[in-house]
Design a protein that fits this description.
Layout lengths: L4 E5 L5 E6 H7 L3 E9 L4 E7 L10 E2 L2 E3 L7 H13 L5 E12 L5 E12 L11 E8 H10 L6 H17 L2
Length: about 180
């Protein structure tokens, strides 16, 4: 099976090429990505714990799902596809904002992403894919914020960065 490719972009989110995902993370090359936050009517975020066999950040907690767009795929199409692949459900997604971040991992890889942050709403239990997800839980937004301070090592590096941006966005837009 051919390794998944990521879309390389400039700081204006203009595509400039494709590269195998692992190579992009080894070279810390800027590429397009997305992060999905699913909330329920209790204003809780659906968090996932990454599967124990993932090549980076195994068993760490993170947002509902995140990944990379494929060539020819819109941000919403990519988020919808990956949400179903990882969490087993579909819901309408809305893009909130995008920003660039860089996050090194302990294993020498680096996420350097232009991240499109999306939101969706869902009130049921997901049907997780055990190849991708170890566990899941609903957690109040304020509790996530406090727990990241108390227990920073149980969360993915990128989730801590993205959550901060997401939190400030929902605070300023009163979502």
């Amino acid at each position: 099976m051919k390794e998944e490719e990521v879309i390389l972009v400039n700081e204006l989110d203009e595509p400039i090429g494709l590269m195998p995902k692992l190579e992009a993370h080894e070279k810390a090359v800027l590429h397009r990505a997305f992060s999905v936050f699913v909330l329920n009517d209790q204003n809780e975020i659906l968090l996932q714990q990454r599967a124990h066999h993932k090549y980076h950040s195994p068993l760490l907690w993170t947002n509902t799902c995140c990944s990379h767009q494929r060539k020819g795929e819109t941000n919403i199409e990519a988020g919808t596809r990956r949400l179903f692949e990882e969490m087993g459900f579909k819901t309408e997604l809305k893009e909130l904002f995008h920003f660039i971040y860089k996050a090194p991992f302990d294993n020498g890889l680096t996420e350097h992403e232009l991240d499109h942050v999306m939101i969706g709403y869902f009130n049921e239990s997901p049907t997780i894919n055990p190849e991708e997800v170890e566990a899941w839980k609903w957690m109040k937004i304020e509790d996530v914020k406090a727990d990241m301070i108390a227990n920073p090592t149980i969360y993915t590096v990128w989730f801590k960065i993205i959550f901060d941006e997401f939190y400030h966005y929902i605070e300023s837009h009163k979502l």
